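Annex B. Sample input.
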Amino acid sequence: MPIEPIMPIEPIQPTKLKPPPTSSQKPITTIIMTKTYTSKTEVSFNVRVDDAWVHVGFVPLTLGGSYFTTSDTRLQEAIERHRFFGRWVTVAPQAPATDHPSENDAGKPSGGPQPISFGSLADAKEWVAAEYGISRTLLRTRAQIEAVALDHGKILTIDNPSTQSHYDYMERP
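Annex B, continued. Sample output.
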């Protein structure tokens, strides 16, 4: 005796695709905004994104505190819903992005590396780590710090050479 289905099976109808936007219709543009979250202590926690748990581990800073940067909007919403947000975790202020060059940049050459001056090697290390998201364990020597900065188009100058000697002990010939 053959088994009959309870409900009749209907063939699946193909769906119609929407045509691309015409010149009168404007395409939808999405702006991806990168947010940096800061904390005065080292923080890590788990948040629920869609149906999965995501571990959010903040990167510690040399002088205390920590930060976490993401451009994933779903992760940003989950972090801002977490109970630590506003109490231990805050959003770092962001400078507005401009498409046109400012008056200060008019005299600078745009082609070559730009020099940046620091008072000590520790200040330079902190800036490079925060600016480019490089782990501080990869920035142990002056040569490593200068190499990372040069890769990003910056030349570092240290104003106070007396603070350099205790950092250079790690360099070997």
